[in-house]
């Protein structure tokens, strides 16, 4: 794996992401500054981490989406390169046109940090091959604007194409309003693009990869990616 | 106020919060009438908030030294050695008055200010905590203040990217007109790379970094040094506006230029902004400072020298750079999109000179600005000691089960999940123990070393007996760190009191500080940083004396730390320490009997230490499976919290005959812990306790889905949990 983690001003989970990628894959990712125009040669995974790029001013992710580096990321994605966006990264991918829809304020209008359960809808993607379809994983969320929304046609297409990868669920995998902490439509927690190579998700799998710090449910995502891309020698 | 040469009238002096004799002191010091800018500078430096003029004489009694203390009070934050070349940098500070006037921004900038204090010293912040005191829930402003303060604390910390891992929230009518927002930040640095405020070298460039200067916060520190009245809302323009985004950039840029070896001295611009930071750097380095205000990056047009010197715009720093590194430092700041301007230089004259538009606006002796600030030995009276309440004379109200179910749902004892879920408490990937336990635990880098941290104080004890209350605040902090398995190392104290010009308030202050000093001495738990917030009163009504104590402890291997949750059924439940049934000033007496009376529980510090050391040894050798300190609400509340956290009940033995049941279950005797151990080890633990002369009593076994007590209906864990979790969300939704 040769991952590149994008760093925008105000991003703050880039260290968590780098540590997790190193822990699970064995390779140290490159940190890529937002004003760069090119990704490091040989990059096979771009990660847009969480945080508050540009302070969430204007709209979450809106300013970062217009950074020079995002042109390179769009080109990379168009050629089938894998792109993972987490939390603010998901927002940035939506704002940059790589994923459809938008993230609104949480239904309760408050920032929420807690562990949630996700139902993994598919295991036949490079991002989720470390899980079984239908598996329930427990990972934390930490966001104020994670309420996913898109127009009816887009939602129908997302659902029809099987592009909803993660949904907020109860511990036993039921999709019900009480488990949908931010009010996302169809309890959507993560989606992929049409080609299936760009994933955006609100929860933070990178914060649940060590038994000693809670749980390891997030590990499957990075282990799966490592398998897909090849472990460091 | 634009001209610098205005006539200084007694009214103008009074407007600046200076007393006539203090003004006379200024005249004597400089031998002439001050300019308007100079008057502003004096008012900023000599107000209570910056000068500690009422408190200094008493603070000298606090123990501040230990072999592990690298930097005690007097710098931006305290620094302690945590081994392996690493240091923990921490401090707690209040932002009370601004938070009452504008809760979101007041709380947010409180967090921002304390974070800056920590990273100014070269530390990357790894955790935040807070201690919040609100008015009675039924007061019409309380809900609005809780909502705004919690959102503000979260809004700043979450965006900045530091986990907010712990704290406390209380409600009492005495905070109706004056809430308390105490924020604590903890950072990690290398012992060889700690940065200080003292400038060195003549002719060194003084550099302004960070956000631009605006007109916000002018006279903020002076506001913090006066009482409130009905017109306090008009002071809204003195509240600063926070920008966590800029602060995050400032953090990264500062750490980067420190890493590159560019910095000689650094000071953040907090209270009294440019004035206080520039004079501090000069005075501490025995140097003069000349500032050229034409170079200061301003957000607004036409700002006067007076306004620039008093602005409390946030996210700003002042540094003395190594001249040869100036270009490198500037490039780093430009990369982060921050302002960088050389605004002055150090001089050999020991004068503080401020120039603007070709004119000298101020020319003052730099050391005397701080050192010659008035210092008061204010008169104080020690309140009469309240009588101890005989538990036998307090009639029980209802059954034990009724009382527990009521207490667990009271504002002070209920779950604060609604609050801490609005704080990102996991960012960084090092939060070993999340909010809700005795102390939070944050792993140090990749471990296994970790830091335990907590904030504590019991204001009703401090009011009833300041000396015992001061002791208790420190002891409870020490106990909470011990209860997770940490060795307590040092504290920061945030002393919130009313108007010190009233002898009874000054008496509370003096008593509490003496109590804190006593406890710190006996527990080997020095004070390394702190903040004093006086004049916390509105229309003559003072807050409860609230000396918040923030403590840090060290754990060599976090995998050995303890949590309070019951782990499995059939384990022995033991109480460490003596239960006598002390009901005076207890939650039971206040919430169930509606009486806020009597002497608070006395604190035997030797017993605290012996019991705590015993508990810690049981944690570290893996014997104790769950540990909880005993505090508000006593034994049964603590048992309920352990049961709820583990979703396991307990079968409890009957109280001894000589203690009334309600006093036994809800009394607040100090120096106590509950632990669980595997049943097979219970006898050995009791024997070990006898050997160590520590009183340990077996009180029951874990198991079942309820707290079961002979003669009482079963108190199911599910029901307790529901009641504990329900109140705060319902209250905030306007339904309770």
Helix content of chain B: 25-40%
Determine Rg of chain B (CA atoms, Å).
26 Å
Largest pleated sheet of chain B = 7 strands, mixed
The greatest inter-chain interface is formed by:
A-B, 30 and 32 residues
Biggest sheet: strand arrangement of chain B: 8-10-7-11-9-12-13
Average pLDDT taken over every residue of chain A:
96
Structure in words:
- The complex is a heterodimer of chains A (233) and B (736).
- By secondary structure, chain A is of the alpha/beta class.
- In chain A, the strands form 2 sheets. In chain A, strands 2-1-3-4-11-10-9-6-7 form a 9-stranded mixed β-sheet, sandwiched between helices. A two-stranded antiparallel ribbon of chain A has the order 5-8.
- In chain A, strand 1, helix 1 and strand 2 form a beta-alpha-beta unit.
- The model of chain A has no long low-confidence stretch (mean pLDDT 96).
- With 736 residues, chain B is of the alpha+beta class.
- Chain B contains 25 helices and 28 strands.
- In chain B, helix 7 packs parallel to helix 10, helix 8 runs parallel beside helix 10 and helix 10 runs antiparallel to helix 13.
- Chains A and B meet through helix 1 and strand 6 of A and helix 8 and helix 10 of B.
